[in-house]
From TrEMBL, chains A, B:
<dbReference type="InterPro" id="IPR015421">
    <property type="entry name" value="PyrdxlP-dep_Trfase_major"/>
</dbReference>
<comment type="similarity">
    <text>Belongs to the class-I pyridoxal-phosphate-dependent aminotransferase family. Alanine aminotransferase subfamily.</text>
</comment>
<keyword id="KW-0808">Transferase</keyword>
<comment type="subunit">
    <text>Homodimer.</text>
</comment>
<dbReference type="InterPro" id="IPR015424">
    <property type="entry name" value="PyrdxlP-dep_Trfase"/>
</dbReference>
<protein>
    <recommendedName>
        <fullName>alanine transaminase</fullName>
        <ecNumber>2.6.1.2</ecNumber>
    </recommendedName>
</protein>
<dbReference type="InterPro" id="IPR004839">
    <property type="entry name" value="Aminotransferase_I/II_large"/>
</dbReference>
<keyword id="KW-0663">Pyridoxal phosphate</keyword>
<comment type="pathway">
    <text>Amino-acid degradation; L-alanine degradation via transaminase pathway; pyruvate from L-alanine: step 1/1.</text>
</comment>
<dbReference type="InterPro" id="IPR015422">
    <property type="entry name" value="PyrdxlP-dep_Trfase_small"/>
</dbReference>
<dbReference type="GO" id="GO:0004021">
    <property type="term" value="F:L-alanine:2-oxoglutarate aminotransferase activity"/>
</dbReference>
<dbReference type="GO" id="GO:0030170">
    <property type="term" value="F:pyridoxal phosphate binding"/>
</dbReference>
<keyword id="KW-0032">Aminotransferase</keyword>
<dbReference type="InterPro" id="IPR045088">
    <property type="entry name" value="ALAT1/2-like"/>
</dbReference>
<dbReference type="Pfam" id="PF00155">
    <property type="entry name" value="Aminotran_1_2"/>
</dbReference>
<feature type="domain" description="Aminotransferase class I/classII large">
    <location>
        <begin position="127"/>
        <end position="490"/>
    </location>
</feature>
Amino acid sequence: MLSRASGRCLLHQGRRYVYAASLSTQTGQKVITLDNMNPQVKKMEYAVRGPLVIRATAIEKELEAGIEKPFKTVTKANIGDAHAMGQKPITFLRQVLSLCSMPSLLEDSSFPEDAKERARGVLAGCKGTSLGSYSDSPGIEIIRRHVADYIQQRDGQPSSWEDIILCAGASEGIRSIMKLMVQHENGIRPGVMIPIPQYPLYSASIDEYDLHQIGYYLEESTNWGLDMAELERAYTEAKKVCHPKALVVINPGNPTGNVLPRENIEAVIKFAHERKLFLFADEVYQDNIYADGCVFHSFKKVMKELGEPYCHMEMASFMSCSKGYMGECGLRGGYAEVINLDPDVKAMYLKSISAKLCPTTLGQAAMECVVNPPRKGDPSYDQFISEKSAVLSSLAQRAKMVVETFNSVPGMSCNTVQGAMYAFPQIHLPPKAIEAAKAAGQLPDVFYAFQLLENTGICIVPGSGFGQRPGTYHFRTTILPQPEMLSTMLEKFREFHTSFVKRYQ
Amino acid sequence: MLSRASGRCLLHQGRRYVYAASLSTQTGQKVITLDNMNPQVKKMEYAVRGPLVIRATAIEKELEAGIEKPFKTVTKANIGDAHAMGQKPITFLRQVLSLCSMPSLLEDSSFPEDAKERARGVLAGCKGTSLGSYSDSPGIEIIRRHVADYIQQRDGQPSSWEDIILCAGASEGIRSIMKLMVQHENGIRPGVMIPIPQYPLYSASIDEYDLHQIGYYLEESTNWGLDMAELERAYTEAKKVCHPKALVVINPGNPTGNVLPRENIEAVIKFAHERKLFLFADEVYQDNIYADGCVFHSFKKVMKELGEPYCHMEMASFMSCSKGYMGECGLRGGYAEVINLDPDVKAMYLKSISAKLCPTTLGQAAMECVVNPPRKGDPSYDQFISEKSAVLSSLAQRAKMVVETFNSVPGMSCNTVQGAMYAFPQIHLPPKAIEAAKAAGQLPDVFYAFQLLENTGICIVPGSGFGQRPGTYHFRTTILPQPEMLSTMLEKFREFHTSFVKRYQ
C-alpha cells in the first residue's frame, strides 16, 4: 500500500527512510506537503509495519498473480498476530461476543449458560441494553469492576474500578497517558526512559509527541536483564538534555522475551521513586510465561507490597486481549490501571478521553471474558481450560524450538524466550555482508532481512527497528507460526543463514 | 466520575471550567501535576460529555439510591446515542456480526443466506480467516473496496479503494487527518475554519493540537444557512493571526440540523479552492434527511462534477455506523475517503496510522453491512428495508414534533430540523434570569440547562458548548427518545420553560 501510494520506497540510515516522490506529484499546488506537514508525524516510525512488511505484502500479491519465486507462501513472523498464524479463538469468548451481538441467541439452547450469563451481564451494563450505545468513555462500569476484581485476585492487593480505564488495545491506553506529559519548559523536553531493544510503539509515540527518548540497554549477556547501573547511566546522561519524567518497563519483554525477577522489579520501583519518574508497566504478556522458574510479578503488586513511601507512586499498567492465550488482536480490547494520579490530573485525563467517545463495546466485552473466564464447575470450564492450556503449552514448546534451532546455527545466538511471543537472536555478519549492505544503502540487519524475505518468503523485523547496541545485529521473529509451519520456517532460516554467511565469507 | 475524582466541579466562563482540588491532593509530590501537564489537554473541552452529563449520571445514581426528586428518570437528550434511547439494532447487521464472531453459526440454518455470504466475505478478507487477527491499518481490503463501490454508486463518480481508510468511528478519522496539519511557522499556527455552532470534537481537537480555531457563524434566520459573506469575513479576519489551512463543513448539520443546498456546496468548494483550504466534509448524517425538498449532496460528488480545477482539491469525507438508521455508536465503525493527497503526504499519513495497528475488525464488519446492505431479491431485503424505513420515518416525525412543540412555547424558537438528529432552539431569557446565572457563576444557557436537569431530569447541552452568537442562548437536544418518551419530555420542557420565564419575569 504505502509503496504504491508513494512511488518508490527507499531505505537509508536504517531507522529513517524517505519516499521518492512519484512523477505525478505537484507538491507546490497541494495544501499539505512534506515541507509544511506535521514534522513529528514525519519523524515517527513503526518498524513492525514498516517497509519490510510492505514488501512482504507486495510479494504476496506477486505470488497470487503467478510470479515465480523460490517459495510458495510468505510467512509473516513480523507481528504478534496469533490468529493470522492459525491459532484458533477461545470458544467461550466468541460465544459471548456472538450473544452480545445478537441477544435473540440467548434463547438458543446450544449456547452454554455461563456464556449467556456473561452476555446478559455485559448487556445489562449497556445503555438501552445494546452494545450499539456509547459506553462511558472509560468503559462499561460492570466490566471495569470485573477488571478490578481480576487484578485484586491476581495481586492480592486492592484495586479500585475507578482506576480502570478500558481502551481500544493497550496501545491507545499507553498513548493517552503519555500525552499527558507533553509540556516543554524553556525548550527542554520531558524525557521517557525506554528499554533498548523496545517495542516501537514507544519510540513512535515519543517522536509524535515530541518527547525525548532515553534508551537504557537491556543486557544481552544476562538474558536481556534489566541492569540497574545501566538504568542509572542512561538517566544521568539524559538529565543533561531533558527532564526525565517517566520510565517504561515491558515485562515480559518485547522483543526480548525476558521475564523480570521480583528483586529487579523492586529495584526499578525504588529507582523510579528516588528520581520521581512515572512508571509505565507494559504487562500485556502477563499470561505468556514459559521458562521454568519464571513467574510474573505485576509492578502494582510489588509496589504495594513495598509499602511506604512506594505505594503512593503514580503508575499505569496495561493489559490487552490481543496477546496471552486469546490472541484477539483485531477486537481492540485492553485496559489501563492508572493509580495514584493527582485527582485534578485524573479529571483532565478523563476529560481528554471523552472526546474520543468510547472504546469499542465489543472489545470491552472481550476484556470481560479475559478477566472473568469460566470458573470451576461452570459448563464451559473444561473446554476453556483445555483450549487455554493447549495454546500456552504449544507456545512454550515453540519458544524452546525457536531458541534451540537458532542456537544450533553457526553465527547465530539466541537468549531463552522466558515469556511473551518473540525471540530476538543476534546474528554475526561477515564484514563483506556489512559492506554489501552499505553499498545497497541499507543497514546490515535491514539488508539481511530483505535478503531473507526475497529468498525464503520469511518476514521478520530487523533489530534496528527496536534498537540494539551499536555494532550488533539482531532480528525479531514471533514464535507464533503453528508447529509444523514453524519447523519449516526454522529449517529455511538455517539454510538461508548458512548460505548468506558463506556467500559473504 | 469526573466530579468524584476531582472533588468539586465549578463552572465559570461557560466554555472553561476549573476543578477545585480535593483535600487529599499532594500536588507537590506528584510527577504529573496541573501545572506541568500538557496545556493543550487542559484547554480542550467536549461539552457533549461535560459537567451537565456528569451531574445527570450522578442524579441517576441518587434516584437508584432512593433519593426523592420531582421526576423518576433522567432523559439523556445530550448525545446522539440512538440505541441508548430505545432504538432497536438492524437485524441483518447484528446477524453478520454474530456470524463473524462465531463462524460455526454459518452452519445454522436459521441465519439467512445473504448474512452468511457477507460474513464469509469479511472472514475471507481477514488473515487466518479470523476477526481476531490485525487487519491492515487502513482496514480490510474487501471492505475498503465495498466502501468505494458504495460511494461510486451514491455519487455516480469514481472512487478508489486505496483512498478509503477505515477508522474506529468518524472522530478518529477526523483527528488523524487534522493532526497532519500541525506545524507552526514562526509561532504562527495553522487555522481551521469551523461552523459556529459546531460539533465540539472539532474545537476539542483544534485545542489539543494547538491549532487556531476560525469560527464562521451559521445564519439562524435562514435555517442555519452557510452564508458566503460570513465565510469570507471569518477568513479575512483570521488571516491576520494564523495560516488558514482547512475548512470544516458538517452536512447535514450538527447541532443545527440544516441540509446544504447544492449551490451552497459549489460556492464553498470554490471558496476553499481559491484560498487553498483542505476540505473536511463531515457527512456522517448523510442518511438522515427529513424535510421535503432536501437532498443530500456529497462534497466529493459536487467537487468532481465541477470539473477542472476543483476536481483535484484535497478533501476528506467522513462516514460512520453510529448515525443514520443504524445508530451503532458502540461498535466504533467509520471510514474516511481521503482524495488528492500529495502521494508523499499520503505515505506519511498511512505510516502515522500504522502505529495504532488497526481499527476494530468488528467495527469494520459493521461498516461492511452499511455499505453493502441486502439487495432486492435477497432473503433479508424486506426485513432490512422495513426496519430501515421505520427508523428513518419515525425520526422524521420526531424531528417535526420537536420543532412544532418548541415553536409553540412562548420565548422559544426553533428552526426546521431538515436532517441529522438534533434541534438547536433559541431560548429568550429574561434579564433577571441572566442576572441569576451571573450570581450563580454560570453562563445563562448553562444555568438554564442545570435548572432544567434538576427540575425535570432532562439532560441537554447548552449552546455555549457548541458556540453561538454573543447575547443569544440556545441548547441542543437530540430527537432520539422514542415517540412516547419524547412526547412526555417535550411536555415537561414546556412546563419548565414557562415556569422558568415566569419566575424571572
